[in-house]
Amino acid sequence: MRHFGHIAPEVRKRLFYREPCEFTADSPARLLSVALGATLYSPATRPRLADDVLKQGARGVVSMVLCLEDSISDADVVAGEENLVRQLTDLAGRPGADLPLLFVRVREPGQIGDLVRRLGPAVAVLSGFVLPKFTAERGLPFLEALTAAESACGRRLFAMPVLESPELLYRESRVETLEGIFRAVDKYRDRVLALRLGVTDFCSSYGLRRGPDMTAYDIQVVASVISDVVNMLGRADGTGFTVTGPVWEYFRVQERMFKPQLRQSPFLEVEATALRQKLIEHAMDGLLREISLDRANGLLGKTCIHPSHVLPVHALSVVSHEEFSDAQDILRPERDGGGVLRSAYTNKMNEVKPHRAWAERTLVRAEVFGVTNEDIGFVELLAAGLAE
Q1: Are residues 365 and 308 part of one domain?
Q2: At 108, phi and psi to the nearest 5?
Q3: CATH number of 210's domain
């Protein structure tokens, strides 16, 4: 699979200076953690789940979570498990199918081993499990169950813990909780692909819900948690993990309180004013702003609950030609001693030592999502993706 692989080759050639790389479920974990992109959630109870997975894969989705937790009722868990096993077995029986990375969000540790056992050979289509309400105390049994299941089936299985518990939110217990989470995921570092933020649960603890004109960063009690999670778990010194962005809840806006947040000029330049209006009507201007703030705050990828959110996440994950040029200049071997240089675009200072970690991360993102040609921006990427 590859990002933007659903777009025609001649269109990709026009858009990309360097096209996104191909990868598989067996690629190195560091690459896959960046490649997750927009991770689309789907209830495990959907009757045509196998067909849905194939359809979304063909539309550019590269990672999906099949959910047995909050997206279904307590009464539907048994039926959801049965349907999940049936649908994954169906997918395993379709040779040559181009599947996204598939994860199952479970409720309890015991479900992991049970599902792996029931899947049998069909576990080959599964990349791992999403672990809800993760803390050190609650999370370790999940990670132990994952390790046992991995040993039993002989296949690499990743964990994606979800950070969403009240202990993490409350100020008086936050640091202790984060320290415990770090110890747990550090012990199982090879199996933890990414950490996911459950911002909806954070808001729930205070009876809050952000509107379509607001981002998670406008809700200060939530923004402070994101900041602390990145501070303690997302460091660039080799101890950190990929931390993914929070879910965007809205599909279409019926009535707006604030002005749209998308400037007109990038759309006027490429005669895409109709696209701008469509994005605004579907609350995408708020989503695009939040994606930009995610990246500025150290998050990569995003939880998605609607297929229309996938392309914006991927379009804003592509590395611009200017970013790529800066990153390459910073990482040239002759710059190892440090120093300051003027950007090739002559619009900024590149300071080698402080910007090195940024440059390294940028080149990994460039490998996975590609690098745009000099005259291409996110509007052209959105327009090309929507045209397919």
Answers
A1: no
A2: -130, 150
A3: 3.20.20.60
**DSSP strands (E only) in the chain:** 16-18, 38-43, 63-67, 101-105, 128-131, 158-163, 195-197, 243-248, 302-304, 340-342, 349-351, 371-372
Average pLDDT (339-348) is: 86
Residues contacting 375, CB < 8 A, separation 6+ = none
- Angle at CA 356, nearest 5°, toward 354 and 301? 110
> Per-residue pLDDT averaged across 128-151, rounded?
97
* Amino acid residing at 358: W
> Tell me: the pLDDT tens digits for 265-280?
565 555 456 655 555 4
Give yes or no: residues 12 and 35 share one domain. no
Could you tell me if 263 and 387 lie in one domain?
no
Instruction: Please give the average per-residue pLDDT across 210-224, as a whole number.
Output: 91
Between the alpha carbon of residue 10 and those of residues 318, 319, 373, the distances in Å are 18, 19, 14
Closest of 143, 42, 145 to residue 100, by C-alpha: 42
pLDDT tens digits along 53-92 = 999 999 999 999 999 998 999 999 999 999 999 999 999 9
Looking up tokens 């909806």, which residue turns up? 200
Q: Of the residues 267, 292, 317, which one is the last residue of a structural domain?
A: 317
